[in-house]
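User: Some background: our group keeps a shared notebook of sequences we're curious about, and every so often someone picks one and asks for a predicted structure to add to the entry. Today it's my turn. The entry only has the sequence so far, pasted here. Could you supply the structure so I can complete it?
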Amino acid sequence: MYNRFSDLELMQLLKEGDQKAFSEIYHRYWKKLLLMAWNLSNHSDHAKDIVHEVFMSLWERRNTIEIQNPAAYLATSVKFSLFKYFQKEYRRAELARENCVFDEATYDEQALDAVFLQEYIDGIVEEMPEKCRLVFKYSRDLGLKNMEIAQKVHISEKGVEANLTRALRILRRQLKDYGLTLLVLLSQCISWFK
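Assistant: Of course. Here's the predicted structure to add to the notebook entry:
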């Protein structure tokens, strides 16, 4: 039945909190948005995360936004999210370059490795979807228990566990994908100062 509704009708139902209308919007546009995000980023995991975040934002903001053209709105949201992603990547690269410059001639290789690894992990965490990032930071940085996190983020304890699992999966994947690149970068930085 929902596939017969126009975009404007679906947006009105979405505004009223109709989850089936949201599902219909999702099914109409997710493939196009994923293709757009992938073409612009050339990275399938980042593209999937960005499209996921765009739809999560649409659901969370359904009561506060007026959308006349969902296709244009969603496409613009994906482009803006990619722009923010590229800004974070640029900042992360700048931090890596800054950390390769030392005033002292002596350094501790293990401390240098730890600094780079922490900066890299922080960058990965910043790219995570919002709830996933918050849950991870509350758990790992502040050491809160799942029940405390659930109260702060307004989700169930199962939701906390799911977000922690997702965050750790993202970290493992990113560290595995970029592990070799990171080691090469570290060895180059270290060799500059020998």
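Suggested note for the entry: Confidence is low (pLDDT under 50) at residues 102-106, 184-194. The longest helix spans residues 157-192.
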